[in-house]
UniProtKB/TrEMBL annotation:
Signal peptide: none annotated. It comes from Belnapia mucosa. It holds the Pfam family IGPS. PANTHER family: INDOLE-3-GLYCEROL-PHOSPHATE SYNTHASE (PTHR22854:SF2), TRYPTOPHAN BIOSYNTHESIS PROTEIN (PTHR22854). It catalyses: 1-(2-carboxyphenylamino)-1-deoxy-D-ribulose 5-phosphate + H(+) = (1S,2R)-1-C-(indol-3-yl)glycerol 3-phosphate + CO2 + H2O. This is Indole-3-glycerol phosphate synthase. Residues 17-270 form the Indole-3-glycerol phosphate synthase domain.
Amino acid sequence: MNAPQLVIPERTVPDTLARILADKYEEVRARSAATSLSEVERQAHAAPAPRAFVNNLCEAVADGRVGLIAEIKRASPSGGLIRDPFEPATLAEDYARGGATCLSILTDAPYFQGHADHLKAARAACTLPVLRKDFMVHPWQVFEARAMGADCILLIMAALSDRQAEELEEIARSLDMGVLAEVHDRAELDRALGLQTRLIGVNNRNLRTLQTDLTTAEELAPLIPADRIPVAESGIRTPEDVRRMAAAGARCILVGESMMRQADVTAAAYDLVHAL
């Protein structure tokens, strides 16, 4: 199976994202040549049952709690190396003790120094459901995500056409996986609401400048219908930031770098979970 050529979505893709996507398509071509679609699909169906990623966050919101998706990543394009030594299993245990609702694990290697083994180790170390954080562009990756143990995938609307997003979501749902649809502006939000998933992530990071601004979530979260679950992403560092996001309607948050840089990630997670 060959991965398709890079398909530019309905809007212009920022240069950084375009470069990442071009590299990702090449990676998928190489990996799918080594492991066929039929084989990775078989592995996906043989994997242990998914954990309830979406339900965990819905329960947190229903109970009036902060739904914290605690991220595990070694590096990022904007922040460079974040944590060394880097021990995904220990971090997962520490986040769970701090009250995290779910985990997010970076598996992209070129830009985040991620690996599938990081996800496997983190998931095995605790009972929390896990999001595979990567640039999903092809069905092969969705089956691969389930095969490695992921309970949820990320769909970045800026990286996908509507047709691509719908296809990837359909495959994820067929595997009983959750989907987090990520948006950066009103146009992407409108497109994401065409999907079935309840989870709508609002990324406060500008894809062109890589800077964060919490007003992005403050502007977009109130526009998300009541039957969906807003998830504020990026730039959340303090309990006050959590309260700002909750006031805008986003009681679920995805936080990584600010906690990953703390010596005591359990305490860092606890402070955010108990911010309200």
